[in-house]
Amino acid sequence: MSRETEVHTLSVPPGGTSDRAFLDVRDLRVHFGTEDGLVKSVDGLSFQLERGRTLGIVGESGSGKSVTSMSLLGLHPRADRKGKGGAILSGEIWLDGQELVSATPEQLRALRGQKMAMIFQDPLSAMHPYYSVGAQIAEAYRVHNEVSKAQARKRAIELLDRVGIPQPDSRVDDYPHQFSGGMRQRAMIAMALVCNPELLIADEPTTALDVTVQAQILDLMRDLQKEFNSALIIITHDLGVVAELADDIMVMYGGKAVEYGPAKSVFTEPEHPYAWGLLGSMPRLDRPVQDRLLPIPGNPPSLINLPSGCAFNPRCAYKEACGTACTTVVPELEPTDGAAKHLVRCHLPVETRRTTFTEEIRNHL
Amino acid sequence: MLTFIARRLVAAIGLLIVVSFITFVIFFVVPQWAGQTPEQMARAYVGRGTTPAELQIVETRLGFNQAFLPHYFDYLKAMFVGTTYFDGTTYLHCSAPCFGYSFRTYQEVWPTVLSVFPVTLSIALGAGVLWLIFGVASGVVSAVFKGSVWDRASMFISLLGVSLPVYFIAPLAMLVLCYNWSLLPSPTYVGFTTNPASWAENMILPWTCLAFGYAALYTRLTRAGMLDAMSEDFTRTARAKGLPEHRVIGKHALRAAVTPIVTIFGMDFGALLGGAVLAEQAFSMHGVGALAINSIASQDFPMIMGVTLFAALFVILANLVVDVAYAALDPRVRLA
């Protein structure tokens, strides 16, 4: 079946496929029905990503970033009609003109590993302990390509070589436990890249690695993205990682984007108090030791009972400045007046945010 | 690998010697500690009205008048080189491996055990195949369709299987299938070499009744193992690669879940080869288990010791096989 017919059997977006971004997520909601209530893990998320570009999704645990990536790949079991036993998805995910929320499991399966692939955190548990690294990579290749075992093995060796595994023709038969942490993550990357996916999602790709290896892996991912011209989503709580790699940054809190814009702009002129908190709690080696970190007080909110109004308000140090709106009205994700592409979800008046940032926050970052 | 097996076999022999020593102490020494005289012990082996001279003969044959260590050493030596019993009037030769002489049946222990072993082997083999196939299959189905009618039905049936012992199911099954409906012959052991078809037909009931309880256990084990494996990160990775669901379940998840099952199967099967006591008893089949029961009932100590060692041998061998199998199944395990 050609890709053309596949697109036409699905709904074609109003403006045709041409003016849509390569990845276009519109108002994505991922809810889970549990005994305690409806968990709104992702609640109205929209973003776009082109080939060759990198989006960094940043947030605390439970902010919905991993759920977002899993639902892009269609990895959540879907809930039944009563809304139980899995994820309730709504919204749209357009990948190269194909809509994924309404796609069948089989359509999604054919895309997984082929057109979109994922690099998981903690490669030791993400790889099967009983199969050799090479066999696992070759298997990913053979699902989507009609090739012999020998050809798939050759391809696995080629990929292991490309991601920087020394002596790939002998290491290909090693088991995951015989690799070091960094090599396992390289192998994981090789497994994700084996079918030349156009969308690559890396979920905390460096969290389980030690610092020296982290930098190597990030370099590798940057090189590979250039080489394959794939769209890359990096999910992390480590702002250092996205600072290195991302073109755009989306900060998530309580299942929603609270700040979204070009990386440079978000980094140098963050406007959301939560983003200030994230930046302020990042240790910097180039700052005097006396400057203390500025941790965000409190805990991430419950996704069943989000605080009314702005979900961040119980932890926000500036909510006095906007009166009652913070605790009663859910703020919209709106452009700041400067850069039209820089969106922020905050009730604070723009001027207040600017002055607060320049006067109070920036010196500490 | 080969050195590992060789070393384990040597260790196995050592372990068997320890087992023989313990059983020996229990049956020959403990009664003496408890205050029984050799004469009283020998009296247990003979009928009333035995003359003191005859009693003396039995006492000598059984070695009750020997000191403990020489007595045990003779017993041990006989295993490797055989022995000849002499009680002052007659010679009884017992060739290696000699595990003693039954003074109830006047037969050598080892050939007796070997002669009944095919019965136990037949029961264990057929039942093992049945419970492994059905237990694992229903466990996988239960896990994959967790909460479904299938899952609930198989959990209910396996609860029955775990709670209904073979000596309850066996008479019930015989009553219905053999006597009321005459579907099957009332089980009697027919040698496999004599008539394979008849062998299988007679074995169906013992196999299914024995396998039922084990299959129930294995269903639960497999279900739990599969549920674990299906929630593992590597299963998610397999899905993310775009593998079809049957490969995700049947290859990646099952491969991880089945490894501990193989281990437990090896142990259970090994233990069963040392005597399927309940099943043999329930179907009146004279295997190693029935031999053990009868020997205990008649206080035939040499026979009890022989059967015990025989059972221990299989448990030890099963352990060795399991270790080797585990290393073959799990590349993280290194034999050393």
From TrEMBL, chain A:
One MF term in the entry's GO annotations: ATP hydrolysis activity
Q: Name one Pfam family in it.
A: ABC_tran
> Main localization of the protein?
membrane
| Record-stated family | Belongs to the ABC transporter superfamily.
Q: What is this protein called?
A: ABC transporter ATP-binding protein
Q: NCBIfam families in the record, alphabetically?
A: oligo_HPY
The subcellular location is:
Cell membrane
SMART domains in UniProt? AAA (SM00382)
- Membrane topology of the entry: Peripheral membrane protein
Q: Which InterPro entries match?
A: AAA+_ATPase (IPR003593), ABC_Ni/Peptide_Import (IPR050388), ABC_transporter-like_ATP-bd (IPR003439), ABC_transporter-like_CS (IPR017871), Oligopep_ABC_C (IPR013563), P-loop_NTPase (IPR027417)
UniProtKB/TrEMBL annotation, chain B:
Q: Name one GO biological process term.
A: transmembrane transport
Annotated InterPro entries = BPD_transp_1_N, MetI-like, MetI-like_sf
Give the record's GO CC terms: plasma membrane
Q: What is its main location?
A: membrane
Provide the membrane topology annotation.
Multi-pass membrane protein
TM region positions? 9-30, 119-145, 157-184, 204-221, 257-283, 303-329
Provide the protein's localization: Cell membrane
Record SUPFAM superfamilies? MetI-like
Which residues belong to any copy of the ABC transmembrane type-1 domain?
Answer: 117-326
UniProt cross-references to PROSITE patterns, sorted A to Z = ABC_TM1 (PS50928)
Q: Which UniProt keywords apply?
A: Cell membrane, Membrane, Transmembrane, Transmembrane helix, Transport
Annotated PANTHER family: ABC TRANSPORTER PERMEASE PROTEIN, DIPEPTIDE TRANSPORT SYSTEM PERMEASE PROTEIN DPPB-RELATED
Regarding protein family, the annotation reads: Belongs to the binding-protein-dependent transport system permease family.
What's this protein's name? ABC transporter permease
What organism, scientifically named, is this protein from?
Actinospica acidithermotolerans
